[in-house]
Backbone:
C-alpha cells in the first residue's frame, strides 16, 4: 500500500462514525489485524507524521488509501476516538486488535513527544516478528511435507501393494522369509495401528488443553521443548530474541525497567522465559541489578555480560538492540544448518522405509520364479 502525500485534495469529510462493537464483530469474522498489516500501519503512520502531515489528516490518508474495508473500519474507529479528544494510546486501548505492549509503548512515545520514533520501533518489531515467523516456517515446512509424503507412501504400499503380493504368495504356498511375514502382518494390522496412533495424538492434544493452565505442566513442557535435538535451541533463541526486541522498544521509549519487564513478560509465550522475566522483575524492585536477577540456566554468559555492560553505562536499550541483531544472525545461520541436515536425513528415512518394504516383497520372488519355472 503506497502513501501519496501530494497537493491533491483529500476527502474533506471525516469518515462516518461507526459502532465500535459492530466493527469488532464484523472484523473478527473476516480475520485478524495481521502482523504484516500492523507493520505497514506503523511504517506509513510514522512516515506521514515525519513528513509534517497533521495527526488527523494522517489517519484520514490511511483510511482513504486502505482497500481492505475491515482494516479501514479500524482506522476509522481510531480517528473517531481521536476527534472526540482521546489520545492515540487511549483510542487503541479500546480495540482488542492492539496489545497492551503496543498501547503502553505509544503512551510512552506521546508522553516524551517521540511518537514517530516509537512508531518506527514498533514497525521494526513487527518486521522482525514476521521474519521470525518465516524462519520458523522454513524450518518446519520441508520436514512436515516429507513426513506427510512418507505416511502417504507407507499407507499406499501397506494397503494396496503388500496385499497384492500377499495373495500371490498364498497361491503358490511355501515358507516366506521373516522380513516378508513381518511386512504382511504389519499390512493386515495397519488400519488398527493408524487408529491407535490417531487416538494417541488426540489424547495428547486433549491432555494438553486440560493441563495448559497448570504452571508445573507449562514449565515442564518448556524445558522438554528446549531439549529437542536441532529444534530446541532455536526455539529458545526465538524466545530470547522476542524478549530482547521488546525490551529495546520499551526502554528506548523511556519506560521504566520494571514496567518494561512486566510488559515483556505479558507478550512472551514461552513459559520458562516468562517466569524468569517475572522473577527478575521482583528482584529489580528490591534493588537487585538486572544482570544479577536473570536466571543463568536460561541466559548464557554472553547475554549476561552485555546486559551487565549496558546497565553500567546506562545504555540497556542499545545493548538489547545489539543482542536482538546477534540472535537474529544466529537464528538465520541455524535455520540454514538445520535445513542442510534435515533434507538428506528425511530422504534417507523415506528410502529406508520404502526399500525395506520392497526388499520384503521382492525377496521371495526369486524363489517363487524358480517354483513357477519347475
Residues:
Amino acid at each position: 500500500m503506497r502513501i501519496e502525500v501530494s497537493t491533491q485534495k483529500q476527502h474533506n469529510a471525516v469518515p462516518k462514525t461507526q459502532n465500535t462493537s459492530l466493527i469488532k464483530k464484523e472484523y473478527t469474522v473476516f480475520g485478524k489485524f495481521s502482523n504484516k498489516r500492523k507493520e505497514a500501519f506503523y511504517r506509513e503512520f510514522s512516515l506521514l507524521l515525519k513528513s509534517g502531515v497533521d495527526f488527523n489528516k494522517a489517519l484520514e490518508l490511511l483510511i482513504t488509501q486502505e482497500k481492505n474495508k475491515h482494516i479501514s473500519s479500524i482506522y476509522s474507529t481510531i480517528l473517531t476516538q481521536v476527534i472526540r479528544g482521546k489520545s492515540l494510546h487511549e483510542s487503541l486501548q479500546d480495540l482488542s486488535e492492539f496489545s497492551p505492549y503496543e498501547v503502553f509503548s505509544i503512551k510512552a512515545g506521546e508522553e516524551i513527544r517521540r511518537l514517530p520514533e516509537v512508531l518506527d520501533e514498533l514497525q521494526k518489531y513487527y518486521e522482525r516478528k514476521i521474519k521470525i515467523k518465516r524462519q520458523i516456517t522454513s524450518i518446519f515446512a520441508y520436514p512436515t511435507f516429507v513426513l506427510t509424503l512418507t505416511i502417504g507412501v507407507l499407507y499406499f504400499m501397506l494397503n494396496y501393494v503388500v496385499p497384492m503380493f500377499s495373495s500371490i504368495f498364498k497361491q503358490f504356498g511355501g515358507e516366506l522369509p521373516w522380513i516378508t511375514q513381518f511386512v504382511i502382518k504389519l499390512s493386515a494390522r495397519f488400519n488398527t495401528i493408524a487408529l491407535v496412533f490417531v487416538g494417541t495424538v488426540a489424547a495428547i492434544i486433549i491432555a494438553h488443553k486440560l493441563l495448559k493452565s497448570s504452571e508445573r505442566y507449562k514449565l515442564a513442557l518448556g524445558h522438554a521443548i528446549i531439549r529437542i535435538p536441532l529444534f530446541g535451541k532455536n526455539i529458545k533463541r526465538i524466545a530470547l530474541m522476542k524478549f530482547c526486541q521488546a525490551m529495546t522498544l520499551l526502554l528506548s521509549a523511556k519506560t521504566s525497567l520494571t514496567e518494561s519487564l512486566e510488559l515483556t513478560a505479558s507478550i512472551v509465550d514461552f513459559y520458562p522465559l516468562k517466569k524468569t522475566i517475572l522473577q527478575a522483575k521482583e528482584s529489580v524492585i528490591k534493588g537487585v541489578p538486572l544482570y544479577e536477577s536473570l536466571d543463568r540456566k536460561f541466559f548464557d554468559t554472553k547475554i549476561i555480560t552485555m546486559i551487565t555492560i549496558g546497565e553500567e553505562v546506562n545504555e540497556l536499550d542499545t545493548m538489547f538492540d545489539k543482542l536482538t541483531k546477534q540472535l537474529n544472525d544466529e537464528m538465520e545461520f541455524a535455520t540454514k544448518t538445520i535445513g542442510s541436515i534435515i533434507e538428506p536425513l528425511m530422504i534417507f528415512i523415506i528410502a529406508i522405509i520404502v526399500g525395506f518394504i520392497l526388499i520384503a516383497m521382492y525377496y521371495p520372488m526369486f524363489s517363487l520364479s524358480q517354483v513357477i519355472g519347475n
About this structure: Confidence is low (pLDDT under 50) at residues 1-31. The CA atoms of residues 146 and 346 lie 7 Å apart. The two ends are 78 Å apart (CA to CA). The chain has 16 helices and no strands.
